[in-house]
Amino acid sequence: MLNAAICGSINHILKTSPWALARLCGYSGAVVAIEGTPFPLRLKIQDAGFFSVAEPDDLAAVVIVLPADVLARLLADRSSLFSSIKISGAADLAETLGFVFRNLEWDAEADLAGLVGDIPARRMALAGQGLTAGLCRSAERGLENIREYFVDELRVVASDEELVMFAEDVDVLRDDLSRLEKRIERL
Predict the structure, then answer these.
(1) Which domain holds residue 129?
(2) pLDDT, tens digit, for every residue of 20-50?
(3) Which of 5, 42, 91, 96 has its CA 20 to 30 A from that of 85?
């Protein structure tokens, strides 16, 4: 049930991207296994480039292993998501899938416009973008506060300045030791 919903969502986005369908239709019949999530997914590429839910016993041409924090990365930083995905199997299909999913974008505003009209959809999209930006800023400030607490209050983690001073002290100690070794050699 969940696999069919995910497959339908991917196909909905693909419907607005003929370039992606053209790239995928050359791999008709290939199965893609997506793992590393609570709900493993197996998709089969159809003749037109759309996906369908594959049978459990179909052999996967490509296996994609997602990181555990896939949803957070998808919302916050898509570039870090793509660099943390592990892909194995047919190299040409894997490359095509990587290109398609890296460049595929959902036009949520267009979908909303079909439901509520253009102006409300635009306002809702702007509100959503503002909310997302605000949540990201709040998360960054929260992480900075946690970092400061561990560095300044608990003193569990060294500050940047302390690390620089330590590195400088190590350099001085290394140079002093080198000079002492040379003096001992001369004796």
Answers:
(1) 108-186
(2) 999 999 999 999 998 887 778 899 999 999 9
(3) 5
DSSP-H helix ranges across the chain: 2-15, 18-24, 70-76, 78-84, 91-103, 108-116, 118-148, 160-186
Given 85, 103, 121, the domain boundary residue is: 103
Q: How far apart are CA 32 and CA 52, in angstroms?
A: 10
Cβ contact 85:65 at 8 Å = yes
Domain boundary among 103, 134, 159: 103
Return the closest-CA partner of residue 33 out of 2, 70, 58. Answer: 58
**Is residue 72 domain-shared with residue 148, that is, in the same domain?**
no
Give per-residue pLDDT as tens, 75-116: 666 677 777 888 888 899 999 998 998 888 888 888 888 899
3-class SS of residue 51:
strand
Task: Please state the domain count of the chain.
Answer: 2
Report the CATH number that the domain containing residue 65 is assigned in CATH.
3.30.1050
Q: Residue 145: what pLDDT?
A: 93
Please answer whether residues 58 and 30 qualify as being in contact, where contact means their C-beta atoms are separated by less than 8 angstroms.
Answer: no
Distance CA 81, CA 75 (A): 10
Residues 22 and 114 reside in one and the same domain: no
Nearest by Cα to 76 from 123, 147, 143, 5: 143
